[in-house]
Design goal:
heterodimer, A: 26% strand, B: mainly alpha, 12 helices
């Protein structure tokens, strides 16, 4: 089995509140996973647990066959967080500088960027068609442009797994389409595994091959086609979502 | 007296050298602190240094020897309180700062004999910097600058986006501790330059001035350093000829630069 990620009996508690309860699944190389569920279902908690950003209460997570506590190959992971309000908009940081931060996962102490790293950043800027923004301040960009830059930061280290937490909320329809087309290209051509949290069921239906539906517990994990034919489909989604997922998937 | 005569004075030369090192250190750390919304930590730690200096004077020991470990410990305590008790960072700064200054006031009251010395620490006296204090300033500033040089990208990433930085393997908690302890050392040094009351200005003002016009992070750090060193050199010179308190003049020069940059940004 070519597992990129294994989650076994994962539970996460915040104080007395159970955010996730005994969640288990395995993700293979090249999977494009749509991670869906209602608000407060624990989707972002699951992602944070996988990334080591939140403590797990019980269970085990393995990335590339290594327990998360011992995992050190950080360049294998690309992470694009939810459009973050945590970022300080007074930060004077250029687009080039933001993308170059993604390369740090490949560096050892003392971290220094070399000429080939700069070339790699320029290549990503070209691929994302944002070369002309290179010297601009990140916070002077539109929401869509910022998201592209953060995608650049996530993919600059050539990760084997990309994790997106509602990446399309700040994007207009055209930018959304462009964004997902690029991600799908990485998935198809480089077999990059993708985990995508989104409320945008249309994109899940269109691009994902597997679906995780959680509502604190794992309600469904498997192929999207099977999900659409099963009983879970009715209980998990409204009729309009049925239509969108089914229509986009077929 | 002309400017050349002024520059012949040993105490002026020492003030220029010591002040410049401290200013540079403050300016660089200040950019990180301001962008991490930790500007007030300088204020809090300077209050703690007041208590520590009072303790040193009370015990008859050179104040810096007491202040350095004491303020470094307080800086760690601020982070620990913030982490363990889940209270906001500025509240933990407030707690530690209040305890520090209360301790200073109690010790000053108990001894009654060193109030004059304590006043010089409240408002600074860079022109009276001793040889050992000068060496101390250079060594500590060197330590801070070397740390920032080697940890630059880790500090940059952790300041910009802490969660993302963690996913790239950066030990953000360790970086926060390093930044806070370096700030503690810098605050103790800055007390000699501008005094307890104005230390936070030396940390904040050059940084916020640079942030008005810089479009790249590296440029913000370089510009902050230039502004800070210029303010100290100009402040010492101007205060000497105008017969004004040096620390306060340094802060006012910084404030003036901030005002000019803010206006320039809006034009």
């Amino acid at each position: 089995m070519n597992n990129v990620l294994e989650v076994k009996n994962l539970s996460v508690k915040y104080g007395n509140t159970v955010a996730l309860e005994k969640v288990s699944f395995e993700i293979e190389k090249g999977d494009f996973i749509g991670l869906v569920g209602p608000n407060g279902a624990g989707k972002s908690t699951l992602i944070k647990a996988i990334l080591g950003l939140t403590e797990i209460s019980t269970g085990r997570i393995s990335l590339f066959s290594k327990d998360i506590s011992k995992f050190k190959e950080f360049s294998k992971i690309g992470y694009l967080p939810q459009k973050s309000t945590k970022l300080n908009s007074l930060f004077p940081v250029s687009v080039f500088e933001v993308i170059s931060l993604g390369i740090l996962s490949k560096k050892k102490f003392p971290k220094r960027l070399k000429k080939e790293d700069d070339e790699k950043v320029h290549k990503i800027l070209e691929d994302l068609k944002i070369s002309k923004l290179s010297k601009k301040c990140f916070f002077e960009l539109s929401g869509g442009e910022q998201q592209k830059v953060l995608l650049g930061r996530a993919i600059v280290s050539d990760p084997e797994i990309l994790i997106f937490d509602e990446p399309s909320t700040a994007l207009d329809p055209a930018s959304r389409e462009e964004f997902f087309t690029l991600v799908k290209k990485l998935n198809d051509e480089q077999k990059t595994t993708v985990i995508l949290i989104t409320h945008d069921t249309g994109y899940v239906g269109k691009y994902a091959n597997k679906l995780i539906y959680i509502d604190r517990k794992l309600e469904y994990f498997g192929k999207i086609g099977d999900f659409c034919k099963g009983e879970d489909f009715d209980s998990c989604f409204e009729k309009s979502d049925h239509h969108i997922i089914w229509h986009q998937h077929n | 007296m002309d400017i050349f005569g002024f520059l012949q004075y040993g105490f002026i030369q020492k003030a220029f050298i010591g002040g410049s090192f401290v200013a540079l250190t403050c300016a660089i750390l200040g950019v990180f602190l301001v962008l991490k919304n930790m500007s007030l930590i300088g204020d809090g730690l300077s209050h703690v240094s007041f208590g520590a200096i009072a303790l040193g004077l009370f015990m008859g020991v050179a104040p810096f020897y007491i202040a350095i470990p004491f303020v470094a410990f307080a800086s760690i305590l601020i982070l620990k309180i913030s982490e363990k008790t889940k209270i906001y960072g500025d509240a933990s700064i407030g707690i530690v700062s209040a305890v520090g200054i209360s301790m200073g006031v109690i010790l000053a009251s108990l001894s009654g004999g060193f109030n004059v010395d304590l006043m010089s620490f409240l408002f600074g006296n860079i022109l009276a910097i001793s040889n050992s204090e000068l060496i101390f300033s250079i060594v500590i500033s060197g330590l801070v600058l070397i740390s920032v040089y080697f940890l630059y990208f880790d500090m940059f990433s952790a300041t910009f986006d802490e969660d993302f930085a963690k996913t790239t393997g950066i030990k953000t908690q360790l970086i926060n501790y390093v930044l806070t302890v370096l700030t503690a050392l810098t605050v103790v040094l800055s007390v000699k330059v501008v005094g307890v009351m104005l230390v936070s200005a030396l940390l904040i003002l050059p940084a916020v001035s640079a942030l008005q016009i810089a479009s790249k992070f590296k440029n913000a750090i370089i510009l902050s350093g230039i502004i800070s060193v210029f303010s100290v050199i100009f402040g010492i010179t101007f205060s000497f000829f105008a017969d004004l308190p040096t620390g306060a003049v340094i802060v006012m020069v910084n404030a003036l630069i901030f005002a000019i940059f803010s206006i320039y940004k809006r034009i």
